[in-house]
Amino acid sequence: MSGPTRLSGSFFAGYAIKWKIGEGGMATVYLADDPKHRRQVALKLLRGEFAASVLGERFLREIEIAAALTHPNILPLYDSGNEGGHLYFVMPYVEGGSLRQRLDRERVLPVDEAVRLARAVADALAYAHERGVVHRDIKPENILLEQGHPVVVDFGVARALASEGKPSSTGAGTVVGTPAYMSPEQASGESAVDAKADQYALACVLYEMLAGHPPFVGGSTRAVLARQVMDPPPPLATVRPGVPREVRAALERALAKAPADRFASVRDFAEALATPVAETDPGPSIAVLPFVNLGSDPEDEFFGEGMAEEIILALTKIEGLNVASRTSTFALKNKNFDVRTIGQILNVRAVLEGSVRRADNTLRVTAQLINTSDGYHLWSARFDRERKDVFAIHDDIASNIVRALRVVLADHERGAITKAPTAHLDAYDYYLRGRQFFHQRRRKSMMFARQMFTRAIELDPSFALAHAGIADASSFLAHHYQDEDTARNIALAEAASLQALALEPDLAEAHAAQGEVLVLLDRFPEAEREFRKAIELDPSQFEARYCYARACYQRGDLPRALDLFDEASRVREDHESLYFAAQTLTALNRTTEAKAAYHRALPVIERHLALNPDDARAITMAAVCSSRLGNRERGLEWAEQATAVDPEDASVCYNVACLFALEGETDRALDRLECAFGTGFAHPDWVANDPDLASLRADPRFQALLETK
């Protein structure tokens, strides 16, 4: 018998092999029959490369020590041996699968369920530690679920592989374990690994159950190991706001880099997690998911997304109601989470989900408002209307949500919550398509957005929001891409914003659009007045705050820019406002706060990229965040990815230049900066305040570049 591939359908060490049921870095697992005891077993055969690196006697001795562990949360060991040079061990066959399989299906678990599983595993580890046995490779694959009851497998294996001073590896070549769950001391190759390493690994597993991913991920094993040693874990509150403070605090301590800073024992960690995990009541709050398109035309998907966005915008104007951001809710699209899980991820009391079916001139909309604590419906309705009634449907849904959540409306909010921006339904369709493209914030998408807004105006010249949309798209193109079209883009933006104001003088979006035009025209005092007017008319205005903040940053008014970026990110969770807030803190030399801000920004950027994987500008922002947080390798990987997606984009070239400057790659940074200036980046005042470029300022080539602008 030459190896594992020859086992299926044969006998091995007295066991009748049925078929392979799993394969990992260290071993192959087979389902087998145990004829002697008339039972099914799992036979685990050590892979040849590992078996060759360890003394068989030492391996079997370690397995025998583990076999003496008898605990309800430890899978018992039936047998072990060396058959023809093949090292193996035999365990009960568990039909429930592993925690890894469950996480692959569900991604995240309810808080109380995750804590329950972690505490049960901790109890098993504490029992083993008290008997001198350290696992060394705790991970979801080594936690099986037997009718929901966790049992730990593979005690003794990792220690056996690290014996005789000949450490083997599951990926790095120098250490034993799994990089995503490996303690810093293991990742550094230290030989003195104790029970504190298991505590750290269990904390990584719990973090993944709550966040959907381990604390540290990367493009390579080396990158992950480097992050384990150097980086603080991303704050759980940024990716799972509903986790109780006590659980977050326990995780933070168990994930400490120095073993001495962790809990004295894994049992103490479990006790810290024993705090009741009933989540704090978020108050009147809601997440609006994209409405599912049930029509025959896939192009109608924009309509379901647009309807959800319109309802979000309407609800954000209501005092006392907290509304999850578009970025957060749309990132959950097609994830198949139950509402309880969504409620815990987004820390909301209710979830609105629905569907849309359009056919000819008819429209069917279903909507259900569901309580996230128990899954019961708070309200549901079906609307069979003509297309012209779409705005009435928006208002009906928003009004019923308010009543169901018992939000008391202020006097100025009574009456219709939503307002029909146009009487022309096809114009409204084009407007929604334009909004969908606008959110992507790329050159081509912005040009498509402007086309859609223009078509809307061709159908309804009085559609003020569409005019404001043309202004915003044109300003974006003029601001980010200085080329032969810049003057035309500014002229289009100015004409469109003025037309929007002429049609609706009290339209906040029109004042925000006009403010951005005035920035481009270098008329900052007038721009300030327009931005402030927009915010006065609509306190939930995001674009006015964001554009105002960028203008302040560009002028060097960093404290004001920081306040506005913070305000913008509170109004709407937006990856760019969070990123630039971190950049501004760096420019102000507020290093500790800046690092925390980069930690907040990075998961939001990643959620944006889950929806827009080809957004090269956002990829470069992830690169800079990673670099600022000490992960050089991941930053460079992001930069290469962005360059591959859009190598000649001015903003991409500029941001990659920033990344290279941060990493001390001066020549490469200046090459990319030249590319940025050559493809339309023309903001020397922005360059003067960008903290990422500090290492270049004394370079004659850098100074020469600025003199040309």
Evaluate the radius of gyration: 29 Å
Give the overall silhouette.
globular
> Which range does the strand content fall in?
5-15%
How many helices? Answer: 31
Q: What is the CATH class name of the domain at 99-272? A: Mainly Alpha
Helix % is 40-55%
User: CATH homologous superfamily of the domain at 99-272 - what is it?
Assistant: Transferase(Phosphotransferase) domain 1
Major pleated sheet: 6 strands, antiparallel
Number of β-strand runs: 14
CATH topology category name of the domain at 99-272: Transferase(Phosphotransferase), domain 1
Structure description:
With 709 residues, the chain is α+β, with helices and mostly antiparallel strands. Among the domains are: 4-92, Phosphorylase Kinase, domain 1 (2-Layer Sandwich), CATH 3.30.200; 99-272, Transferase(Phosphotransferase) domain 1 (Transferase(Phosphotransferase), domain 1, Orthogonal Bundle), CATH 1.10.510; 285-413, 3-Layer(aba) Sandwich (Rossmann fold); 612-709, Tetratricopeptide repeat domain (Serine Threonine Protein Phosphatase 5, Tetratricopeptide repeat, Alpha Horseshoe). The strands form three sheets. It has a six-stranded antiparallel beta sheet. The longest helix has 21 residues, at 591-611. The radius of gyration is 29 Å and the shape is globular. The termini are far apart.
